[in-house]
Each structure stands twice: as structure tokens, then as C-alpha cells.
Write a structure and sequence with these properties.
This protein is an alpha/beta fold. It has ten helices and 14 strands. The chain has two domains: about 210 residues, P-loop containing nucleotide triphosphate hydrolases (Rossmann fold), CATH 3.40.50.300; about 60 residues. About 35% of the residues lie in helices and about 30% in strands. The longest helix has 14 residues. The structure holds adenosine-5'-diphosphate.
Length: about 290
């Protein structure tokens, strides 16, 4: 099944254009929606999740018109929003059971089986009696995925899921996501380039409500080949370099500044060629 977004636009009542003629086609597997804060990712996710209206454009999930048939979409959608509200004093077991009832799983035996399976899949079964308020950030996110998986969704949307997780929790969460992404559409919205590099077979990079690049991360990296150059400079030299070159990123390294420059050929002999990574693609795209 495909999710096809066509000419989607949204301007908020304060005049801010959050989405501007967005066109994206997404097949099954993990899809990365990458962009800095304010790019419009959450606006797009909320629109796909039927939580907010667009001004114009269309979203089709297979034959289903997402903007028109919201109830139908909600039956096949799992959503893990950026700020997932929890009742901290409720156990994971009671909470997932409650969500399952809301999803319409009315047979108690069937509900018990499904909830057990989901808590097992997300590695929370042994902690099911603990209150969610006592969970770590990673456990909460895994619980968020467990509830998003209720009702066998065809499409799962996760918004900034790894922000604030420690490396081990993040890794665990990645493994869980890629397992899920084998069969259904999973849209991962994030500003963390590495998450997309590790997990997603396709992606778009957005900024200021516009899709700037779409394709496969590996191909986007390949297309940058021979165009990213590195130089270590002193802090005082930065402004001059910015004036003369397209500096796409800067990083402090042992008191010096390492700059990455986008240029079709070696700017001069003082620049060292780099093997581009997705971060270079990202910065070159959003600073263009
Ligand atoms: P992202 O998820 O990529 O950080 P958002 O979709 O949250 O981006 O925001 C895109 C832009 O729209 C931002 O400039 C944000 O301030 C603005 N915005 C988001 N929600 C609203 C809203 N409800 N009303 C007005 N402006 C909003």
C-alpha cells in the first residue's frame, strides 16, 4: 500500500505557512521525514493522522481519501505523537487495556492476548504492573509504540521518538521500529540525521514547509560524492570563509573549527576531500 501526498498546503491563522505544496509518495518500510525544528514535520504528521485540516491538496492511503474519511483512516493508523500524554499513576497493563477498548477490541480474551503480545514485542511484559510514570524515557516510548500497534495498523507515524533517549534505549527503539517497518508503512519524523541513516530506506528533507529533497539516503550520499570539502581553521577565519565559500557546517575540534564546504570541485589546495555522509547531505540541502 502507498501513501500519496499531493500538493498539500497549510497556513495557520497567524499567517504562518507551515506546508507549501508538499508532494510525497511513501511505500511500505521505514520512511524518514527529516528537517530542523519548525520545518513543518509535525504539521504534516498531524494532517496525515487526521488531527488537523489542510487548506488544499490531497492525501491518499491506497484508495482511501485520508482528508475525507477520517474515521476509516483512524482504524488503520497508529500514531505516536511528540508529546504522548500519560496517566502516570496507571500501570502499563491497565493503560494498554484501556487503549485496546478504545480501539474497539471488545472481546476480553482477545484483548488480553493482543495486549500481552504487544507488551512482549516491546519488551515491557515483565514491567506491565509498574506505573507508566515510573518508566524510563525509552520504556515510555516503547509503550507508545505498543499502543500505536493496537488494531494492526497499516500506517504508523512516530514523531521525534528518540529525542531524550540514551544511546542504549535509542538502539533498542531502533530495533523495534525496523522490525515493525518490515510489513507496514512507518513514517519517522525527526531532526536526528543518524536515525534516518540507520533506519530508513527512503526519506525527504523538509525546511520551511517545503520538500527540498526526496529519495534514498544512500543515493543522496552518492550524489554528494566529490562535493564536500573539509578544512581546519582558526575561529577568526570563519567569517572570511563564510563569505567566500558555501560553508554547510562547522564543528569545534580541539580548539580549532572544522568547516565542511560544498563545492563542485576542490576550492583550493588547503581543502581536504571528504567522504560525504547523510549529515552533509542534510546541511547542504537545508542551507541551500
Ligand atoms: P516541526 O515539527 O518540523 O518542528 P511544526 O509543524 O511544528 O514543525 O511547525 C511548523 C511551523 O508552524 C513553525 O514555524 C511553527 O511555529 C508553526 N506552527 C505549528 N503549529 C502551529 C499552530 N497551531 N499555530 C500557528 N503556528 C504553528
Amino acid at each position: 500500500m502507498n501513501l500519496k501526498i499531493t500538493d498539500l498546503s497549510k497556513t495557520y491563522s497567524n499567517g504562518l505557512k507551515a506546508l507549501s505544496n508538499v508532494n510525497i509518495e511513501i511505500g511500505s518500510g521505514m520512511f524518514g521525514l527529516l528537517g530542523p525544528n519548525g520545518a513543518g514535520k509535525s504539521s504534516l504528521m498531524r494532517t496525515i493522522a487526521t488531527l488537523q485540516e489542510a487548506d488544499s491538496g490531497s492525501i491518499m492511503l491506497g484508495d482511501l481519501d485520508v482528508l475525507k474519511h477520517k474515521d476509516e483512516v483512524r482504524k488503520v493508523l497508529g500514531y505516536l505523537p511528540q508529546d504522548f500524554g500519560f496517566y502516570p499513576k496507571v500501570s502499563a497493563w491497565d493503560m494498554i487495556n484501556h487503549f485496546a477498548i478504545l480501539k474497539g477490541i471488545s472481546n476480553p480474551r482477545e484483548r488480553k492476548e493482543i495486549c500481552e503480545a504487544l507488551l512482549n514485542q516491546t519488551n515491557l511484559f515483565d514491567a506491565r504492573k509498574r506505573n507508566i510514570g515510573d518508566y524510563s524515557g525509552g520504556m515510555r516510548q516503547r509503550f507508545g509504540i505498543a499502543q500505536a500497534l493496537l488494531g494492526n495498523p497499516k500506517l504508523i507515524i512516530v514523531d521525534e521518538p528518540t529525542a531524550g533517549l540514551d544511546p542504549m534505549e535509542r538502539n533498542r527503539f531502533h530495533n523495534l521500529l525496523s522490525e515493525i517497518g518490515e510489513n507496514i508503512i512507518v513514517i519517522l519524523s525527526t531532526h536526528i540525521v543518524e536515525d534516518v541513516r540507520n533506519l530508513c530506506s527512503n526519506m525527504v528533507i523538509m525546511n520551511q514547509g517545503t520538500v527540498l529533497l526526496s529519495g534514498k539516503p544512500a543515493q543522496a550520499i552518492e550524489d554528494m560524492k566529490g562535493k564536500i570539502w573539509m578544512k581546519l581553521i582558526d575561529k577568526e577565519e570563519l567569517e572570511a570563509h563564510k563569505a567566500n565559500h558555501r560553508v554547510i557546517s562547522t564543528k569545534v575540534v580541539e580548539g580549532k573549527i572544522q568547516i565542511h564546504v560544498y563545492h563542485a570541485s576542490q576550492p583550493d589546495a588547503s581543502f581536504i576531500p571528504l567522504i560525504a555522509d547523510l549529515e552533509d547531505v542534510y546541511f547542504a540541502t537545508i542551507t541551500n
